[in-house]
Amino acid sequence: MQNIFKKIKPSFMGILCTLILFSGCEKSEQKKAPENKNKDPLKQQFEQWKSQQDPKLLNEYYEFMTQYLKHPPSLMELTTTRNYMPEQCYSKRFAIPPKKYWENVVGSLKLVEKLNQNDFYQHYTITAIYRNPELNQCVKGALRSKHLYNYAVDFHVLAPKETDQKAREGLVKKMCQFWQKEGKIFKMGLGVYGNNRYHIDTQGYRTWGKDYKSSSSPCLKTTK
């Protein structure tokens, strides 16, 4: 019996060690999984909001908006305000505008896309379009903000890199030159906020800078 046990024991111990090893690996993988899920909390918030909306309305809105564009933005870009805001405003950042406002932003989106296709910038992401009244009040936005009526597009140019000051200044100059030459035709409102962040609407020929005043716009300074 002792001889038999000696023959079986190493085999049994090997299996036991193998089971322990695999069990350890599984626990290690399970610990890493939550980290991967939490990498993009904003996207998680969007997906949660989306799951609570009428899918038919979401699809109708997306199809309406994208029919005018060659390279339409994502649904998340169309419905999410990603500009800086206090944490207490986060829950109000997602919204579909009322249907009567849907068409309002088409001209602005087409203008943003036109600049992209004309090589003013290669890559950009939309950070705000429609801002519902609750969010506007929470962030202390302008009472007559064009975002309230779905007229405006805020976007962030992803290239040139923000760390390249010369490239940033070159882009600002190009954007201002376009506004000066063709802005009246498009009734273009151009906000230049710095760090490759811009606002475009088609509700009047005007420009402003970081403090939302025309006096701080680099486009007016370049005309002197």
TrEMBL record:
Keywords: Carboxypeptidase, Hydrolase, Protease
The keyword Hydrolase is annotated on this UniProt entry: yes
GO MF terms, alphabetically ordered: carboxypeptidase activity
Residues covered by the Peptidase M15A C-terminal domain: 110-159
Keyword Hydrolase appears in the UniProt entry: yes
Name by which UniProt lists this protein: D-Ala-D-Ala carboxypeptidase family metallohydrolase
